[in-house]
Amino acid sequence: MLTNILFHTAIAAYFVATCIFVVYLFTHNERVVKTAVGVLTAAFVLHTIVIVLRWAGAGRTPVVNMHESLLFFSWLTVALYMIMLVKFKQRVLGAFVTPFVLLLIISSSFFPKTIIPLAPVLESYWLPVHVVLAFLGNAFFAIAFFLGIMYMIQEHYLKKRKLKGLFYILPSLGVIDELNYRCLQYGFPLLTLAIITGAIWSEYALGSYWQWKPRQVWSLITWFLYAALLHGRLTAGWRGKKAALLSALAFMVLVGSFIMINVILGGAHGISLR
Amino acid sequence: MKLIIVGLNHKTAPVGVREKVSFPADGLEDSLHRLVREYGLNEGVILSTCNRVEVLALSHDEGIEKGLLQVKRFLSDSSSIPLDTLDEHLYSHCGADAVRHLFRVAAGLDSMVLGEPQILGQVKDSYASAVEADSAGVIVNKLYHKVFSVAKRIRTETKIGEAAVSISFAAVELAKKIFGDLSGKTVMLIGAGEMAELAAKHLLRGGIREIMVANRTYERALDFVKEYGGTAIMFREFPHHLKSVDIVIASTGAKNFIIREGEVRDVLKERKHRPMFFIDISVPRNVDPLVNNIDNTYVYDIDDLQGVVASNIKERSKEANDAEGIIDEEIERFYRWIKSLDVVPTIIALRNYCDGIRKAELERGLKAMNELSSKNKKILDSMTKAIVNKILHGPVSRLKKDADKIEGDTYIDTMRKLFDLDDGEEEVKKTGSAED
Questions:
Q1: Could you say which residues from 256 to 295 on chain B have a Cβ atom under 8 Å away from some Cβ of chain A?
Q2: Residue among B220, B290, B205 nearest B252 (CA)
């Protein structure tokens, strides 16, 4: 009951923060963006409490059904943004991340919220480790995606030599490119570890490391995409627009495969969790 | 007590008038003394810059017209321009208008170049002189501290000071938007003309690491390097150095493009596609516009830069609106304080405060001695009342007597602080709005 109230309050707060961020994109007013960040922080605190309550209520990491997964992944994304906010003072990025998080948390409310017991085969310490690694990696990729979008917008202004609108509030190309690169540098090893721990977990639970399930195949495809992107950055000088575009595309593949597997094929890893 | 400001600026008076009215810095103290002593005004500040001369003074409530006239006479006397002639160039502001004007001036909103930062320093100097000359009292002190904090708030909360409004400065800002940090970046000047020199100066201030100069006359390049540091290179050698520079400023008199697309493509491959920024301030152009089509390469010619300046000015005026909003807010706060300096609410607040203590203590005492007759209770009540009144008699009559003098505000302010009377602000606000 309390969790439910907090959950809806958090959604409302994310919605308000999104609206204020949109106002900021048009007015460029520093006070507006400070307010937006304030409301976002409040939403994040509520979100955190919801997760903690859910965790305590279920007695396990709340990442078993779609509702929990979306709730947890969106939380990680905001948490990551908050860290970047403190470290790099990137307020504008919030205007891109917040609507995304709002979308995720609203989608999570469409899935059943009941706490379901975990299938005994899946019960293992590898569950939280695997899922948290995978989600954290994906959160980095999500931020990289929005940085890629920001880069493309800013690059467009500078190339067309018509300076207006977002040009004045977006960070410099150098800064966006650097942050995008860093996100990949963190996200990629996390994804790698997630695939490895997933394989180990699969060995424990199902008796084989790799079964060519759609989830496994797609994570491998994403892994190759990001590996290629990182490799290109390091050796072939893929930077700027090219890198921004590719990091955006790779994330779209990632989201697409997630939706396909979880919504259309029903259930992560092809094992019924319900 | 009312604030008045009388003055003239670049919009109302030609330079011929401004230079006559202006106050040289060394005679400022004498002028302030005269303003306060001979023209019967309380507190005064004189701001004198090449674009404006303004006198701020305090006059008695009932004598605003007289106060305005006195300041105008002061300006006319010290500039020896007859009042009739001078008057057509003067503007004047009273009360809240004057406060708003001062806030706007200090924030650069009233300046020729919107948001320019020098004026704040000049306002600070004018206040410092007033403090030195002893013509700044409690209101001026408070007002100017407010002015400085408002100007600072506007600088941090709006970007009014940021948008660049000159071509060379705009070029530097663009470079920052492309590269982020300029330290560690290298710039090459091809042609060392006046404009290129100015841009290079701005870039150096922006933190650029190295300058390379190529000029058709090698000696000119050497001269430049002597003055600003860097390396001079032979003109025909410059294409070989392109791969190691991030920013190129071209300003030669060449009739044809000296930097072409194919060439830059190769250079970019060599430098692993690290971005390059070409600033082409020459007419006819030196850099082939097709170069802009290459990824991670940006070419701005003189027209583009002019366009950037125009957008920057537009963006600044947007920021100016935000700044006006901040000013509105701060004026309200400042006036809440000014109103609190009115003598009547202060006396009421002081009486309420003391009477509150008296009542509370009396009640406690009466509870302890419950066998007291109602007659005795009445005696105690009037006795305590008399004590409070007698104690307050001195301070209250002093407040009333000096209310219109310069010390009056100090007394009221001190009284409010000593007795912590400012939680009665709601009440003050109400009386304030009733007056408006």
A1: 272-275, 292, 295
A2: B220
